[in-house]
TrEMBL record:
Belongs to the RNase T2 family. This is Uncharacterized protein. Keywords: Disulfide bond, Signal. Residues 1-19 form the signal peptide. The active site is at residues 58, 137, 141. The keyword Lipid biosynthesis does not apply. GO terms for biological process: RNA catabolic process. One of its GO terms (molecular function) is ribonuclease T2 activity. One of its GO terms (cellular component) is extracellular region. It comes from Miscanthus lutarioriparius.
Length: 247
């Protein structure tokens, strides 16, 4: 009975907090398609059409500046072991699925579809329909954004258009290559100089196990309108030098 009551308290707290999420900033996450595809699992193109050789949006994700634990009452009722297995050792680091029944309607973003096709394409072989990718991002992250669907997608597109990451890197001499590698510090500095703000970087491994620039995490204010310096670092999986594979 004690466990049941604790779970009811926990989920009621989640329900209340989801009404108006108090996150600290957004991550605008953009991925380099060459790095997505140049792995052992490979990639697939939406509608069999190859996207442009440009960074594509992965998502606009509300995030906390510090992982948040739950109420002491819940922990006391569950006990440490049950609490940690339920909520997680680090607590809640970002909100997600805040309104799971809020499905994305094609009608709500009808005027954005052409731009989304160009700037937010899916590369997954599990699902080759971009709308389903957008719907998933909306349900998991967008429903926690305190934005309506049209604003959520439109603001992500506007932020991407304001700073062309591939062009910024090219201006710094960092261009796609199947052989060249670049200092990860140079990549980070180029983005900071080109956008005016420090971003976080994520790398993955190509089919040969070499590090390559995979995703750029730009931090955005709570209105999803302006870039800010990222308030926290994150694991990068990057080495000192990274590739930017041709796409």
């Amino acid at each position: 009975m004690k466990l049941v009551i604790a779970f009811l308290v926990l989920f009621s707290l989640l329900a209340v907090s989801s009404a108006s999420e108090k996150f600290d900033f957004f991550y605008l996450v953009q991925q380099w398609p060459g790095s997505f595809c140049d792995t052992r699992q490979g990639c697939c193109f939406p509608d069999d059409t190859k996207p442009a050789a440009a960074f594509g949006i992965h998502g606009l994700w509300p995030n906390y500046a510090k992982c948040r634990g739950r109420q002491g009452l819940v922990r006391a009722m569950l006990g440490d072991d049950a609490f940690l297995s339920t909520v997680g050792r680090r607590g809640k680091c970002w909100p997600e699925y805040c309104d799971d029944g809020n499905e994305l309607s094609p009608w709500e973003i009808r005027d954005l579809v052409a731009s989304l096709d160009r700037s937010w394409p899916t590369l997954s072989c599990k699902n080759r329909r971009s709308f389903q990718f957008w719907s998933y991002e909306w349900k998991k992250h967008g429903t926690c954004s305190n934005l309506e669907p049209h604003d959520y997608f439109a603001r992500a597109l506007a932020l991407k258009a304001k700073h062309d990451l591939a062009e910024i890197l090219a201006d710094a001499g960092i261009v796609p290559s199947d052989t060249e590698t670049y200092p990860v510090s140079s990549v980070r500095d180029a983005i900071a100089q080109g956008t005016g703000f420090v971003a976080n970087l994520e790398c993955n491994r190509d089919a040969d196990g070499e590090a390559q620039l995979f995703q750029v995490y730009q931090c955005v204010d709570r209105d999803a309108k302006d870039l800010i310096d990222c308030p926290l670092a994150m694991p990068t999986k990057c080495t000192d030098r990274v590739k930017l594979p041709v796409f």
